[in-house]
Amino acid sequence: MGQGPTITTIAQRAGVSIASVSRVLNGLPTRQETERKVLAAAEELGYVRNAVARSLKSRRTHQVAFAMADVGNPAYLAMLREIQPVLKAAGYRLVLHSTDAVVADEIEVLHSLGERYVDGLIMVPLRVTEAHLAMLASARAPVVIIGSVPEGTPVDNVRADSRTGVRLALDHLHALGRRRIGLVNGPLDTVPGAARGAAYREALGALGLPYDEELVEIGDFYRAEGGRAVATLLDRVPDLDALMCANDLIALGALDVLRAAGRRVPRDVAVVGMDDTDLAAASWPSLSSVSLGSAERGRAAAELLLDRLRHGEREPRLVTVPPHLVVRASTGRAGAEEPRGDAP
């Protein structure tokens, strides 16, 4: 019996390189014309009996992409820890993209869905632009967005409830007797920055506290940038007695700056973060934080995507994960020990 078709014979029949055949058979991005030639040659030679070729012919790669702003952010890692096992159990591999929250990179990820290197995409965009919405409306594969998108956007959507989360934090600080409550936020042109800024103002009003622009500082969603924003705010408002931080990384930067300034936490300044990441419990002092259900959002997104892949067309679904406040030492949990001056 003669030898069956190989990558070499497929390359010869298609008139392309062996490397090009390998890329096609492994589901990697390839020019559509090259892919067409390789699949046609593989079918002529009987290679379609191979499971990989059958998968390519059916336009399924059994891969799903997860695109997030920063692979080092523990909130995204919490999502990833839930997304991966859900997809793996269904026979899918996960491809990761770290976009650094660059809109052009996110648009390129959406555009590349047309190359069919994955069967679907879970994306966490910090900004949602008109370009995002146009690409989502014409996406060539199912997409699930973690974060808020405008009503009517034709994708499945998993959201946090930042509005309630900020209110939980400010209610807690107010109940502790704090009245000079500052906000250290991320950029206001981002979805979370805009939502948390509006929620802060609304929560102050509900508590009967005036909104004071002097108490608000805009930085970025990273520890170092958050620390710089906190330092600026402390210089401007030395009688600050509490900080609401837009995520845990900013809050950790706040703890760094407060410690260096000799301000005791929580006696002088109480601090609350958002996301309730693993770092919150491990910090010194341990950080009170609003859990936005990162793990739950990741799991819900994976389940929505699998349902879409299995059943095809249906109305887009919205899942909102409720927040809850986890109280720890940074706001004076009962029995919590304040850090000494030589604490790490």
TrEMBL record:
The keyword Signal does not apply. The keyword Transcription applies. Keywords: DNA-binding, Transcription, Transcription regulation. InterPro entries: HTH_LacI (IPR000843), LacI/GalR-like_sensor (IPR046335), Lambda_DNA-bd_dom_sf (IPR010982), Peripla_BP_I (IPR028082). This is LacI family transcriptional regulator. Signal peptide: none annotated. Residues 5-58 form the HTH lacI-type domain. GO terms for molecular function: DNA-binding transcription factor activity; transcription cis-regulatory region binding. SMART domains: HTH_LACI. It comes from Nonomuraea cavernae. Pfam families: LacI, Peripla_BP_3.
